[in-house]
Amino acid sequence: MKPHNTLLASTGTTIFTVMSALAVQHGAVNLGQGFPDEDGPADVLRAAADALLDGRNQYPPMTGLPELRAAVAAANRRFWGIEVDPAAEVVVTSGATEAITACLMALLDPGDEVVLIEPLYDTYLPVVRMLGAVPKLVRLEPPRWELPRAELAAAFGPRTKAILMNTPQNPCSKVFTAAELAFIADLLQKHDAYAVCDEVYEHLTFDGWRHIPLMSLPGMRERCARIGSAGKTFSLTGWKVGYVTAPKALAQTIAKAHQLLTFTTPPNLQRAVAVGLAKDDAYFQGLADGLAAKRDRLAAGLAALGFGVLEAKGTYFVTTDFRPLGFAGDDVAFCRWLTETAKVTAIPVSAFYADPATAPRHYARFAFCKQDATLDEALSRLRAALAARGADAPRALTA
Ligand code: PMP
Ligand code: GLN
Q1: Which residue range forms the structural domain that includes residue 182?
Q2: Distance, CA 264 to ligand 1 centroid (Å)?
């Protein structure tokens, strides 16, 4: 029989699914895939439940229910000072995942170049390649993950159509600074390029670090498609409600991509997300403060066990260097050992690179968006396994 699509046939199952399946198989505490182990806010859940039973279960408008589009526009103004026409500049999608693909579909022709920043989220590269566009990769270097400005500038050229960027950034928990964003804005203007801004962790920043949407910078209003996710903002990752804010003409093209991909997104969940976006400031601050406390708990515990713990300024994740533990194996071997023997699951950071062979191989990403008891259980399992480790540890250098 003739072969399937070459690109998809050669794409592996996502690392998040692989590691979650391994966690289930071994009864491990899953600090791999990023999802909270508590439900989101009760009023949002109640709004969704009510919305299921009040007879509005047919196709909603293609670009989203008016009340959610209005709520997204209001949130843009309230949090980031971005003025948006809810009727023409918001597109509701089935998760940020769909939004990312829809934005790339809307912008890219075959042969267009797209600047991407490693470490990167796992859907970016395959979608760019699927569209026949050419990725131009720029790499952030641990442990500080600073923007390498000269390399970024060199990645832009006459064929650059867009940059796809993620701030706060998964997995390295970097929050782009105003200066870094201004540098990017300058490049976009110089090269007449767009930005697809994956900002799903927009509300999850810590220690006084504040998210800045590129779209809020001078001259960027017309060049950016800004993506949010109810999954992250309301701790309901299974809901898959995303929203794109973009200038009118671009929003119309994004809506056409959405029309081909899913057409609409469940109306009940949209209505509940509109309720969520209208919650008071204390909710959003509480979400970030609660996660910061969880980060501190896990980071301190991992550091006490001997991990090198990198700074996490936002997101759900902390990156750790496991070399101080005395392991010489790579991150995939380490995460496998962790799951099978310590019964705690993490994600190998090399999965966030185009070419794992040249990626750093000694970092593991742990999700801290979990109940304290879950984090404590993971730490106590790690403590026991590290104390007992012997021949089964991957190429252990030290006892
Ligand atoms: N982008 C990033 C950086 C993410 O970490 C995630 C995590 N789920 C997504 C996009 C996808 O969001 P959603 O679940 O809304 O599709
Ligand atoms: N964003 C989540 C993470 O990075 C996973 C989402 C997924 O499983 N596709 O862990």
Answers
A1: 42-280
A2: 18
Is-contact 200 96, C-beta < 8 A? yes
- What CATH number should be reported for the domain holding residue 235? 3.40.640.10
Of ligand 1's listed atoms, the one at least distance from the Cα of 94 is: 16
Ligand found nearest the CA of 228:
1
Q: What is the pLDDT of residues 14-60, one digit of tens each?
A: 999 999 999 999 999 999 999 999 999 999 999 999 999 998 899 99
Does 145 lie in the same domain as 55? Answer: yes
**Model pLDDT for residues 71-83, shown as the tens digit of each residue:** 999 999 999 999 9
Cβ 253 under 6 angstroms from ligand 2: no
> The CATH number of the domain where 347 resides is what?
3.90.1150.10
Q: Whose CA is nearest to atom 7 of ligand 2?
A: 16
22 and 46 both lie in a single domain: no
**Is 11 in the same domain as 51?**
no
Ligand 1 pocket list (CB less than 6 A): 95-97, 121, 166, 170, 198, 200, 229, 231, 237, 240, 242
In a domain, 397, yes or no: no
Q: How many domains does the chain have?
A: 2
Total-model pTM: 0.96
- Best residue among 16, 124, 315 to mutate for probing ligand 2's pocket (most ligand atoms within 8 Å of CB) is 16
Ligand 1 atom nearest 166 alpha carbon: 3
Q: Which of 248, 280, 312 is the last residue of a domain?
A: 280
Any domain includes 260: yes
Residues in Cβ contact with 75 at an 8 Å cutoff, skipping those fewer than 6 apart: 228, 277
One domain, residues 240 and 371:
no
Task: For ligand 2, say whether the CB of 123 is within 6 Å of any of its atoms.
Answer: no
Q: Say yes or no: 343 and 386 in one domain.
A: yes
